[in-house]
Amino acid sequence: MRIYFKRQFLQLGHFPRKKCLIILLFGISLSLISLFYLLQWNIICLNAEIDMHLNLLCHEYHQGKAHGNLCRPICETGDVSVLSCQSMHKGKVAVFTAEWNGTIVVIKSHREKSDYMPLYWTDNSNLIFPNYEELVEMISQSLKLNFGVYLDDAISTLFPFFETESEKTVDLMTNLWQLSQDNEYVMLMTNQHSKMFPKILSTCGTFYAVEYAKPIPVHLKTDRNLRILHSKQILELLMKLASFQDPIHICDVKLEHFGLIGDHMVVIDVDTVFPRSVVERSTSDGRKCKQHQDCYLFDCQSLCNEITERCDKNLINNNLQLICEKIFLNSGLLLSGDLPGSQQFLIEKCAISGDPGTEAYYAKELLSYFNEYLRVSHF
Predict the structure, then answer these.
(1) Would strands 304-305 and 258-261 be described as parallel, antiparallel, or unpaired?
(2) Contact at 8 Å (CB) between 254 and 245?
(3) How many angstroms separate the Cα of 330 from the Cα of each of 12, 261, 322, 376?
(4) Rounded distance, CA 354 to CA 224, Å?
(5) For residue 369, what are the CA distances in angstroms to 161, 263, 340?
(6) Predicted pLDDT at 28
């Protein structure tokens, strides 16, 4: 009997250990896979990854392949020191805060080098590079076709951070060509003197430093007056974007894509900010579609023609409708207790109306309410 019980004890002791080991290995594997995708999608980030990118950038700088007057402070003098990587920036290679001569800046790079359209073309297996004058024309045409940007002097507007007397080497021209393909870089540089976007301060290769904007605080303890003020500032920003000859559309609307520089609101993530002509060209380009989502450019929406099964309809929404839906209502910037019933109803109507004809009406009514609220509260 003892032997029987002893054997039973040993058998029962082995199986739980095996089972625990299998569960442990499964848990570790699942955690590693989850970490991989969280890093891939930039939901989380690691400072070690930033160090890797900067080491590669500085290696290219010392080889003469990376140009711009941000290179020396990063790679030689140490005037730029990394503070922290920034998560939730899917689609960018790197986004991190740094201190530069006592000022906080944000340094970004949009793509891997292999993702840019190459500067050269091939002829009988030989690589052919344009000369500088051809490059200037290539950049001008690319800006018109891809970004709806028309510049008389594209080079001086987009690239003031390069020494004009520098030799126009292939590496320098490659830097210019790559930056000209970055929508965020182009939008920021063509609006450097506005107060709607952060300013670009300098570049090195495909990395560029921009002004730091404070995030908008939104939590239950955030003062109601402050939430109303920030809502008013976002609304005023939208009205400025709508006043462009080719109105600007924000096609990925999130509260974290807005921030404050001083007392004015700015759009801080500009990857998916385009002139209306570019958005309409993208959402109604005649491509095949099976469902309406096939005709979307992120949050900017068109419809699939059910008869032709082509994306050939006009936009069905606008900036204000998206802001009412995704920020005023869904983000918590405006809580239901902040608004009287009539204003809550107004925002709910605004959130479902993408009709361009009603945009001005809703903007006027909301701005009037925000101004009156802040006047009465003496905020």
Answers:
(1) unpaired
(2) no
(3) 53, 24, 10, 26
(4) 28
(5) 44, 20, 10
(6) 61
Q: What is the mean pLDDT of the chain?
A: 87
Q: Who has greater pLDDT, 165 or 63? A: 63
- The Cα–Cα gap between 281 and 60 comes to 37
How does DSSP classify residue 34? H
pLDDT reported for residue 33: 47
Neighbours of 166 (CB within 10 A): 9
Give the end of a domain, one of 212, 237, 252.
212
The pLDDT of residue 112 is 83
Q: Are residues 246 and 346 in the same domain?
A: yes
> What count of other Cβ atoms lies within 10 Å of the Cβ of residue 86?
18
What residues contact 7, with CB distance under 8 A and at least 6 apart? none
Residues 64 and 171 both lie in one domain: yes
Domain span at residue 123 reads: 45-212
Nearest to 184 by CA among 73, 307, 267: 267
Which residue reads 């890093």 in tokens?
39
Q: Evaluate whether residue 29 is within a structural domain.
A: no
Q: Tell whether 53 and 190 lie within a shared domain.
A: yes
Flag whether 31 is in a domain. Answer: no
Q: Looking at the predicted structure, is the pLDDT value of residue 21 above 80?
A: no
178-235, pLDDT tens digit by residue? 999 999 999 999 999 999 999 999 999 999 999 999 999 877 567 889 999 999 999 9
Helix (H) or strand (E) segment spanning residue 12: helix 2-40
Taking the C-alpha atoms of residue 125 and residue 143, their distance in angstroms, rounded to an integer, is 29
- Output the pLDDT for position 7: 41
**Predicted confidence (pLDDT) per residue in 313-332, tens digit:** 999 999 999 999 999 998 88
Number of domains the chain contains = 2
C-alpha pair distances (Å), 162 with each of 111, 194, 282, 306: 20, 22, 33, 51
Residue 119, CA distances (Å) to 241, 302, 356 in order = 33, 33, 40
- 252 to 27, 89, 257, 264, 300: CA distances (angstroms): 35, 12, 8, 20, 8
Would you say residue 323 lies in a domain? yes
Report pTM.
Answer: 0.85
CB burial of residue 231 (10 Å; 0-12, 13-18, 19+): buried
Tokens representing 118 are 């190459």
